[in-house]
Design goal:
By secondary structure, this protein is an alpha/beta fold. It is 26% helix and 26% strand. Strands 3, 5, 6, 9, 10, 17 and 18 form a seven-stranded mixed beta sheet that branches. The protein has a six-stranded parallel beta sheet with strand order 13-12-11-14-15-16, with helices on both faces. Strand 7 and strand 8 form a beta hairpin. The longest helix has 13 residues.
């Protein structure tokens, strides 16, 4: 038996329960978690903004040590440190054939499987976004584990599984920020903090962080922000004032709200790029008129998982970490146990802190 945070139904509170994990079958790996990040996507799964089969063990950003492997698994062995990959590419669908592995049509098929059972009543459990990282141990498909970078503590490496890949990819793959450009980042949570660091790595000349909370300014500046704007009705005007009345070259929205997406768009210069990373609900409708689309010549694009290929990007991120350019600890504002996840969700809703990290 292992302890896990179980979502019994959409809209229900998490329950800390004992679960029974099977031994890994062919093509599977059992992992003892070192840490798991609490991401806004997990919150979106609890409230139904995103859908997964329930009951489920959530958590998709994690790292740990391989306990055992099933038949046919050769790329990792017991004792290896690994990062969990919640969106493994199938390599066969249309998106994968185009090299757009972050859009793989079959990436989340594993979430519909039964991977464990509750110890108290034997009920089936699904693995959240494939990997069920909110547990002391998990069993995942072999393509859901990647070797952890050498020289990076496993607890820190957990952040590479979502926040860092997403934030780094938003800057380097989606928006393709060039040296000397100006950048605004909306939302200073875990992904936003990673995005700020990525903009600094890209050589942005001015990096403006935007958040509703004045208390996050120190966090943002430590991550690379040169300026800080407390979100209000005048945010776009303030950003234009900081950029010679032009607007930023690139705006990255990490919140997923219609008003924030619209403000990010209005903060972008003519011909600039607005990248939306935040996951909003279907009720968040964003409107544009035909004339402004023509006149401003801006590019508006969505960004899934940072448009990243984890197998290729993890070694790049590891080099930035070892060189001191990327500081994973700067993303974490609290380290908690499994039973601290609900409070971490409450802090997200209240706009408090950066990334909460469950440490086992």
């Amino acid at each position: 038996m292992v302890r896990a945070a179980v979502l019994p139904a959409v809209g229900s509170p998490l329950e800390i329960a004992d679960i029974d994990l099977p031994e890994p079958g062919p093509g599977q790996v059992r992992v003892k978690l070192a840490a798991a990040g609490v991401c806004h996507s997990d919150l979106s799964l609890t409230n139904g903004t995103m859908r997964v089969p329930v009951p489920a063990v959530l958590g998709h950003e994690g790292a740990g040590t391989v306990v055992s492997v099933g038949e046919g698994v050769t790329h990792v062995a017991p004792g290896d440190g690994v990062v969990l990959n919640w969106a493994p590419a199938c390599g066969k669908c249309h998106a994968c054939s185009l090299g757009e592995v972050w859009l793989c049509a079959d990436a989340l098929t594993g979430a519909g499987s039964v991977y464990a059972r509750r110890s108290d009543d034997g009920s089936d459990l699904h693995p959240g976004l494939n990997v069920a990282a909110f547990a002391e141990e998990t069993v995942v498909a072999a393509n859901c584990v990647l070797r952890a970078p050498e020289g990076v503590p496993l607890a820190d490496a957990a952040l590479l599984g979502c926040a860092v890949l997403t934030g780094y990819g938003a800057v380097h793959h989606s928006a393709r920020v060039r040296e000397g450009e100006t950048v605004a980042v909306f939302g200073v949570g875990g992904v936003g903090l990673a995005t700020l660091q990525a903009a600094r790595i890209a050589g942005a000349s001015k990096i403006i962080a935007v958040d509703v909370s004045p208390e996050k300014e120190e966090l943002a500046r430590r991550a690379g922000a040169t300026d800080y704007v407390v979100a209000s009705e005048t945010t776009a005007r303030e950003i234009r004032g900081l950029t010679g009345k032009q607007g930023v070259d690139v705006a990255v929205e990490c919140v997923g709200r219609a008003v924030t997406i619209r403000t990010a768009w209005e903060s972008t210069r003519r011909g600039g790029r607005t990248t939306v990373v935040g996951i909003g609900g279907k009720d968040q409708q964003v409107t544009f008129n035909a004339l402004e689309l023509f006149h401003f010549g801006r590019t508006l694009s969505g960004c899934v998982y940072g448009n990243s290929d984890p197998a290729k990007d993890l070694p790049v991120l590891a080099e930035h970490i070892r060189a001191g350019r990327l500081d994973l600890s700067a993303l974490v504002t609290e380290r908690i146990a499994l039973d601290g996840i609900p409070a971490a969700f409450d802090n997200m809703v209240a706009g408090k802190g950066g990334r909460a990290l469950v440490v086992f």
